[in-house]
Design brief:
Blueprint: H1 3-8, E1 12-16, E2 19-28, E3 31-38, H2 40-51, E4 54-61, H3 64-69, H4 73-93, E5 97-100, E6 105-111, H5 112-120, H6 125-130, E7 142-147, H7 153-169, E8 174-178, E9 184-188, H8 200-214, E10 219-222, H9 229-245, E11 250-253, H10 262-270, E12 276-277, H11 279-282, E13 291-295, H12 306-311, E14 315-319, E15 333-336, H13 343-354, H14 361-375, H15 384-395, H16 400-405, H17 411-422, E16 425-427, E17 430-434, H18 442-453, E18 461-468, E19 471-478, H19 484-490, E20 494-495, E21 499-504, H20 509-521
Parallel strand pairs: 7-8, 10-11, 10-13, 11-12, 13-14, 14-15, 17-18
Antiparallel strand pairs: 1-2, 2-3, 4-6, 4-7, 5-6, 8-9, 16-17, 18-19, 19-21, 20-21
Helix pairs in contact: 8-13, 9-13, 9-14, 13-14, 13-15, 14-15, 17-18
Length: 534
Amino acid sequence: KTVEQILAASGTDVTVEDRQYSVYGARAKDQIILYFIDDTYYKEVNREYTESRLVVCLALFDNREELARDASNSEDSRLASDVEDALNSWAQQMGGFSKRLSGGRYLIMTDERHVRVAMEHRFEILDKVREIKTSDNRSATLSMGLSRGAASLQEAEQGARKALDMALGRGGDQVALKQKDGTYEFFGGLSKGVEKHDKVRTRVIAATLSDHIKQSDMVIIMGHKYSDLDCIGSAVGIWSAVTNVLKRPAYVAVNRRQCMANVLIDYMEAAGENIFISPEEALPKLTSHSLMIVVDTHNPDVVESPELLAAAQRIVVIDHHRMMVKHIENALVFYHEPYASSASELVAELVQYIGDTALSRADAEALLAGIMLDTKNFVLKTGVRTFEAAAYLKRRGADTVKVKSLFADNIETYKAKYKIVSSAQVHDGCAIAYVEKEFPDIRLSCAQAADELLSIQGVSASFVIFPSGGLANISARSLGDVNVQLVMEQMGGGGHFSMAGAQISGATIEQVHAKLLEVLASGAGRPPKESGSG
């Protein structure tokens, strides 16, 4: 510290050899007086108090059910035993202990000192558990939630539970660390979400949702800003179940001036469906008995109309994106499944339990369009349940040729898309393109360009930066080797493992481009390179 810094501060910490001082300065005519107060003892006590604070950790062998489905009883027992042994060993290294709870969860008690070491080593327990494999070479994965800085053990346990839920909501195989100020820090999350084969939860959610709809005088369905085919398609599916089976009036609130799926809206209206209204028209229709169903997002900041959301007293959320720290709270039903390919897949499953014949041909085509958009024609994030949902929609009359026509571009959009693609540069397997000036349908063109860049040999992730609405925007896509959600979170955005985005205010396209290169150079979203254990 300089003398001027000491004079400007009200107490400065200074270490001289092995002693610690608080230094205060004062001016006296042409002299400067410095007071050195030796408070080594008190600072050591404070440091020891801080570093010995208890930290509660809850862990879950999160894919045991899926691994056990195809394993023998003896192999299932071996996997569970190996994971438990790994946790016990890690807990001992952390100066604490591990205790098995019900439901496959584990309680681990440690202290702040050891948590800091674990953070420096990026929670290597995640890698240790991934090394535990089945006979067909599938890895076990672990989710963990920790709470730091809680005022009591009860508060710490509650915080750890919330952190574990956050880790699971983001796809598992990661650690969520809840800080004293309520923010989260994440480690891991580089594995794709494991598809769940059991549809029991879907059936329970469908029954609960039906009950809430029956208790409502009207239902308003709303997605996210700049709604796409998945957003509108899933909204149409819910609308069909509400009106055709449960016989309640319903509307889809959408801002058509900012919609990226107007072709689907026009198709539904041509089919005679009176579905869509503006958020301004929906607002006066809401009553205390109305139900708001939010689809394809759980972030209150990006819904089509935050004012409409704030006015709703009864809310349901249906989404497949990985959990964000800021999400809609106090929902009557929060149906969040990050394993799913799309919101349309989730809705297609729910509709079968609400009423198997609810969907018209046009409704089924709307849902199929949503699935095809988010899976890139059944290539990305596609599981067994995705094909089962598509098969159901086909049985309901969905015409795949008609659905394909919903993806057709006009000539201007087509030219713009390939101009963006041709300008891209590849950095370490990531294709990056940027647009400097805004033009009509820029969001659609840039999203499609990001998709198209993945077809280039050697490209595992793509990023397109563009201006829109006074903000710098990024569309990010991945084939699975790079978790673009983690990359976009460092840019202030979020999304899904293979599809994400960000909106940045107060920055130029060039500045965002430079920041993105820095984030990618840091290794964000990629598995850590092999190194010695630490």
